[in-house]
Amino acid sequence: MSLALGLVIIPLLAALLMLLWPRLARGLQLAAALLCTILATMLLQLVQQEGSQQLFIGGWNPLLAIRWQADSVTALLLLLSAVLHLLVSGYALAVQQRDKLAAAFWPLSSLLLASLQALWLSRDLFNLYVCLELLGMVAVALVTLSGDKAMRPALHYLLFSLFASLCYLLGVALLYGAYGALDLPLLQGQLQANSLTAAALVLITLGLMLKAAWWPLHLWLPAAHAAAPAPVSALLSALVVKGPLFILVLVWTTLAPAAFLNVAAYAFLVCALGALLLAGVAALRTPYSKTLVAYSTVAQLGYAMLALALMLSFNLPVFTAALWLFVMAHALAKAACFLSIGEMQQTLGVKKVAQLKGASQTMPLAMFAFAVAGGSLIGLPPSGGFLAKWVMLLGLWQAQQYFLLLVLLVATLVSAAYIFRVVVLAFDRAEPTAPDFSPQLLPQWLALLPALAVWAMAFFSMPLLAILQQELS
Amino acid sequence: MTALLPYLPILIILSSLLPGLIIFSLKETQIKLRTWLNMLGVTVKLIFVWLMWRAVKAGQEVTFSLPFLPGADLVLHGDALSLLFVILSSILWLATTIYAIGYLEGSPLRSRFFGYFSLCVSATVGLALSGNLVTFLLFYELLTLATFPLVVHRGTAQSLAAAKRYLGYTLGGGVLLMFGVALLHMLTQSPDFTPGGYLLPLVASDRALLQLAFVLLIAGLGVKAALLPLHGWLPQAMVAPAPVSALLHAVAVVKAGAFGIIRVVYDVFGVQSIQQLNVATPLMLLAALTILYGSWRALAQQDIKKRLAYSTISQVSYVTLGVAMLGPLAAVGALVHLVHQGVMKITLFFCAGNYAETLGIHDIRELNGVGKRMPLTSLAFTVGALGMIGIPPTAGFISKWYLGLGAAEVDQGWLIGVFVLSGLLNAAYFLPVVYRIWFTQQRLPWPHPQQLSKKLETHWMLLSPPLFTMLLVLLMGLFASTDISPLSWSELIVEREFSYD
Amino acid sequence: MLSLYVYFTLATLLIGFGAYGVWRGPELLRRILALNIMGAGIFLLMVTLAYRPVLQGEPADSVLHALVLTGLVVAVSATAFALALLGRILQKGKA
């Protein structure tokens, strides 16, 4: 378990050192990210061999102590966030001079990693609140790095985020008042189906849904994610919105009394349908390229909601696997999308989708990265997105949910429409937008890397599913 | 030699994939290296295909597999049927590559074009070699992705619109196919394609679901095979450069759909299950309707490529129809038509491209007297057109003959009526063109003539491919009874793999 | 016992006012203040919950006290951050 501790402490320490010696920031960032990736790999191996690991911080007894637990899903998420952090750091390093990336990016992004890793590990309602709050504040601070134009979206993001945390906190307080514990495994099975529990769960769920930008509570996300610098948008869309989602899954799969599950499943289902269809249509219509990608995040989260709803209403292990596969595939693909779009925006000096005209001639590599990542968002084989969708399809056929199959079909076509809206334009040869300066190759390759990784994911489906199923047995 | 055998399928795919990937990274000016790489890929692929052909002919089966999804490995399998399609696409790739090099000489963005061109052929060959439904699905989608940049290559407003439409149709079809494959996978995993199908044990218990799966699969494949009413993308995709249209129509896209239908009917469901599920007749009707509709619409087209496009819609459905008849002779007809139509149609498209490139002719009315100016191209066009109508001794006659015999064999006499009617329509839209080419005088000057060669009527790289394929059309017809002809190979497939008694 | 109910009611009222203020807006400063009122309500609720054992003659629940302290730190820093952002926005508006 010292591995897990290291995963949180290393980026935290790195962030502090960066503040003390700003000159060393870049080196420290890369070193910390690399170290975290190695540690997370080791932890994943350990968990696979010896099962889930527990740690009570400070060695107190479970009633008082904060419990950290590294099970297989957590280990995967830890690895995912470390790898993405490493990638995005590499990209930021490659473009920092050109894009005039503020020096504060380095400590803040390290801090983001630390709070995220702590969140994945934590199994204590209040500790989760602290991680969540920290995550939210660091995320807002990162958005402000874009300068004055980002201040307003950032403040809106902060207010939404604070309100959401307070809702969550109120819910947690009610639960503690009623059951006298904050530790998730201790609370498991204790909750009774009464109105107090219901109120607490509704508050917790609302808060988390707001933070995770679940439709229809997503209004803050497109503005904030579109305003941030490219590496930040990539981190926010790929990882930050997944934090609250993780807590939501924990709460509903371990805490909630069985009597509530059906109602919750229906509520999640409605949100999922709204996200998949309406947010998808919003992505189709927005004139700005970054907003398009941001709306696509809202839409893609719909798959995760759908998987959660199905998890709660059917006792089929495939839906759990589908949920985490969606999370992983989306994280990698979305990072590639934001990095490639950001790269094109910077080089071509444009913001609108229509201005990406001819980008396949001027910036073939970045456009290719976007298209490849988009293929995973659509769910084309053999990508990670396909794997997730495939697993979900099998479950839906098994559960005979024909209406949802139809929805999935339409949602897939909508996502194809907004991805290819950009890709088709890129092949336009009439008067392509000329680059402001000659395109750089390294950042384009770095944008392509996560896209290639997500396409490789399908070939590791057996080990991945084995890891996810280890959790269930 | 035998050690190489299991790797042959993957080597056949890589022989075009790797050159393609390298070509992407080349500069526009590295023409020699690019041409060299293309030709190397073609040659190497043909050698591998020949090796595999020898092995399969000797009764060996070649399988290569990689772990992929649970219950569905990535299986590449060389059997007689897949080889039919592999040989067709490799040989036509050779012709089309030469043609494309000549056709695109001096135009921009050729590295991108040839890169995607190679990817497209890799996907087609992969699709042919797929050993189970999941692998097939994978290459089917990759084919969509690889052909899209080719359709949109010219980058004009018209080609952007066509490409959007193409994507809309093919991605939609791909999703339907994916849903169908997932349904079957849920029922019984995805075993390798089996002669006689593997779904018979489920027919009694999951009848409705199997029918649904059949509809989903056929709808998904029908988009690429341009079955009515899913054909809308094809006439519009004509804006692509001629070599692309040639390849799309003859092998890559429409044939991928038709080939998929053959696989689904014979190796997934099997004749017996199809009969018990009562799904063959609707497919047959749909195919017959498409044949007539395509021919009818072709009559009204004045643009050469558009007329050829509607003709493709009609001709590909012969394959579907032959499959849906569920008889051994009809199956032979379907298989052999898959090859024959490919070679004939590619000849016609090469010629249409030559007319457009050399003289700027796009409209049929501009063809008057072109036979004097471009006799060799016109000869190839004429042979291709006669083949399409089904006049002996061309290849087209052989396939239509077997399809007719097949219809009689399964007691569907009315289908012979369909064949006759469609044949008349074919004659009605091809013969006037041939007449114009040879027997009328040139009235107007050529729209946009170019001097592409000093001695020949056009550039040798544009001229040799249609002549080569024209020769094939004649040879396949004249030597249909020898044992290296597509006909005898098709008979071998039906005998060996379709398990008719 | 009565005082407990008074505190609970007070906490509920504060949370309600705060939530209403956040929802209603429209000024950003007002929203920030409303969030603080809401937070104060929640902390009051937690402190009141911590007081419950005292009625049975047991010591107060120190876990909740610790939570409130942590929460206060978080709330103060978040408010400071929000105000700083607001300051930047207003400054830009003036210039």
Automatic annotation (TrEMBL), chain A:
Signal peptide: none annotated. Residues 122-413 form the NADH:quinone oxidoreductase/Mrp antiporter transmembrane domain. It is found in: Cell membrane; Membrane. Keywords: Cell membrane, Membrane, Transmembrane, Transmembrane helix. Pfam families: Proton_antipo_M (PF00361). Belongs to the CPA3 antiporters (TC 2.A.63) subunit D family. This is Cation:proton antiporter.
UniProtKB/TrEMBL annotation, chain B:
This is NADH:quinone oxidoreductase/Mrp antiporter transmembrane domain-containing protein. It is found in: Endomembrane system; Membrane. Residues 130-424 form the NADH:quinone oxidoreductase/Mrp antiporter transmembrane domain. The lineage of its organism: Bacteria, Pseudomonadati, Pseudomonadota, Gammaproteobacteria, Alteromonadales. InterPro entries: CPA3_Na-H_Antiporter_A, ND/Mrp_TM. The chain crosses the membrane at residues 6-24, 36-56, 76-101, 113-131, 137-154, 166-188, 208-234, 246-266, 278-296, 316-340, 346-364, 376-402, 414-439, 460-480. It comes from Alishewanella longhuensis. It is a multi-pass membrane protein. The keyword Zinc does not apply. Its main location: membrane. PANTHER family: NA(+)/H(+) ANTIPORTER SUBUNIT, NA(+)_H(+) ANTIPORTER SUBUNIT A.
TrEMBL record, chain C:
It is found in: Cell membrane. Pfam families: Oxidored_q2. The keyword Membrane applies. Its main location: membrane. The chain crosses the membrane at residues 6-23, 32-51, 63-86. The keyword Transmembrane helix applies. It is a multi-pass membrane protein. Keywords: Cell membrane, Membrane, Transmembrane, Transmembrane helix. Belongs to the CPA3 antiporters (TC 2.A.63) subunit C family. This is Uncharacterized protein. It comes from Alishewanella longhuensis.
